[in-house]
Amino acid sequence: MTIRFIPMDEATAAHLRNGGPDAYGNAPEKRISDGAGVRCRRCMDFVARGEPYLVAAWRPFTALHAYAETGPVFLHADPCSPAPLSGALPAFLESPAYVLRGYDAGERIVYGTGDVVERGSILARAEELLAMPEIEAVHVRSARNTCYHCKAVREA
């Protein structure tokens, strides 16, 4: 199975970059990166030291429901090249561990799929979860703060 990691969509990134309200109705906060691990959810790479970035509340779901978590995300303040849609682990996933959790076609958590996974096991665990017919996507979240990073899907 080939897995593809999906970044924040361009429409959401453009909306936030143009000052549009985030998931809580607030304007994104603009900051300058100190180079210490600010991860852009659009290009799935790091925001370099001295570069501007945005902090916004984002809900990476298509509808509001009980499982539609909202949390903080970072994003380059200026347009960045979208991450290549490949089976490779995104560059910005460099922490020792992440939470992986499976979601069904209705974007509901498939219970029993959430787990803290070491970085080196992300691809294997995502493949294992996506082999389950009821799972449409796997969210990759920070193990420390549970911030959303990206999602993994089966290659079409």
Short recap of the structure:
The protein is mainly β.
The total count of helices amounts to 2
Q: Into which percentage range does the β-strand content fall? A: 25-35%
Radius of gyration: 15 Å
Mean pLDDT: 94
Protein name: DUF1203 domain-containing protein
Pfam families: DUF1203
Organism: Hoeflea olei
Topology:
Blueprint: E1 3-6, H1 10-17, E2 29-32, E3 52-58, E4 71-76, E5 97-103, E6 115-118, H2 122-130, E7 137-142, E8 148-154
Antiparallel strand pairs: 1-8, 2-3, 3-4, 5-6, 5-7, 7-8
Explain how this protein is built.
The structure is a single chain. The protein is built from two helices and eight strands. With 156 residues, it is mainly beta. The chain has two domains: 8-76, no CATH class; 86-154, no CATH class. The longest helix has 9 residues, at 122-130.
